[in-house]
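Late entry, evening session. Most of the bench is empty. Finally got around to the prediction I had been postponing all week. Sequence below, unchanged from the version circulated by S.P.
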Amino acid sequence: MQKHKTVVIGTGPSGLTAAIYLARANLSPLVIEGLQPGGQLTTTTDIENFPGFPDGIMGPELMDNMRKQAERFGAEFMNGWVDAVDFSQRPFKITVEGSGTIEADSVIISTGASARYLGIPGEQDNIGRGVSTCATCDGFFFRGKKLIVIGGGDSAMEEASFLTRFATEVTVVNRREELRASKIMQDRARENEKVSWALNRKPLEVVAGDTGLKGLKVLNNETGQEELIEADGVFVAIGHTPNTTFLQGHLELDGHGYVIVKPGTTETEIPGVFACGDVQDTKYRQAITAAGSGCMAAMDCEKYLEGSVVHDWSETLDR
């Protein structure tokens, strides 16, 4: 059975940053890549808001560069899917499908959160070609364009309002007449003159042509007729799902499945187990914040391995 000082589960900007810092500290981390090495950024085209790249950089290229940087300092990579963990005793045990069980003195969880998709025709084919799940990431590319936001919750209202900074018109499409968003978020969107509404309409297909997106085909639930809402871009805003199924029953998660960490740190309730990136971030979900939390996790992990006193959660929770 392999034994490691530290194991990083998941890549993306948080896991790879943690690996870089751990490797430079001579901790020789093992990084277990999941089914999508590099995370969500591997499905992104131009990234223009990651510091240090004045002309932007392609998502896959950025992730490849970070991986090579971690390897340069001695990080080891294993491709596989973690299907079980045991944090009840030390060393911790991690079971990788097809590769057996690994032991670790410390673990960093950076498995991220996956954007939810509708599963309609044309959606996956046009990711990065007009379909997006992140207004903050991609809104800039749609200056002077007509856009669609799909969803009825707070995230959809927030994305629609944000996109009006760039678009000439933003149409909110929701399958019901009623919105799930809080009243304040609904009011903010309804007061924006650039936001229009296509409620009680079920998305059927993202329609694209030879030169780009044409729009979204929907079913009008009132008339039973199909309609085409013309647009240059479609933003799917129906939430995210943290990749934490394998942690259920082994680590404290919130009601949505995100890993709970002590505020201001990456520490979980189990000493020696840390979490960084979107797997514990319900608010920002940006590449740069994920990378920053990866740095934090590596430094917290290093101090733990050096024998530093782990924070007492009870003191923080009682405040």
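Two things to note before I forget:
The radius of gyration is 21 Å.
The first helix runs from residue 12 to 24.
Will write this up properly tomorrow.
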